[in-house]
Design goal:
Layout: H1 2-21, E1 37-45, E2 55-62, E3 68-73, H2 78-91, E4 98-100, H3 110-118, E5 122-123
Parallel strand pairs: 1-4, 4-5
Antiparallel strand pairs: 1-2, 2-3
Length: 137
């Protein structure tokens, strides 16, 4: 029992450490962005009930042009988010310069943070509990 409690505590610390490294961006901080600055979020296709299995769609909206791309996912899992971002990068007619998700743990994690760092993509996040920061998705 102690082993499980200890491992859960470490995950929380690591998540908080990543969250602290990802800068916060508000709706007023966009300042005429170039094409390639994306807001990303999930849309759940659950039929009104979050029970059971259903498809999630990762939606990416370019703030400058309004261009929207979507990738379906079987679950909200961080490695699948990275794979979906790779698909999105191939589908878009411009390079991805910046991504800005909400504070979902499927986005704010070491996998996506490392991917963005390794591919020179600026990674910001919205403020917790401020839905107007994700105004384009």
């Amino acid at each position: 029992m102690r082993k499980q409690a200890g491992s859960r505590k470490r995950r929380c610390r690591k998540r908080k450490k990543i969250r602290a490294q990802v800068p916060v961006r508000t709706f007023a901080d966009w300042n005429d962005p170039a094409p390639g600055c994306l807001e990303i979020d999930f849309v759940a296709h659950s039929g009104g009930s979050m029970a059971g299995a259903f498809i999630h769609t990762l939606v990416a909206t370019d703030i400058s042009s309004g261009w929207v791309e979507c990738v379906p996912l079987f679950s909200r899992e961080q490695s699948l988010v990275v794979e979906a971002l790779q698909v999105l990068r191939r589908q878009l007619p411009f390079p991805v310069l910046k991504i800005d998700p909400d504070n979902d743990s499927a986005f704010i994690n070491e996998s996506l943070y490392s991917y963005c760092r390794d591919h020179d993509i600026q990674f910001t996040r919205s403020r917790p509990s401020c839905s107007n920061d994700q105004a384009w998705v």
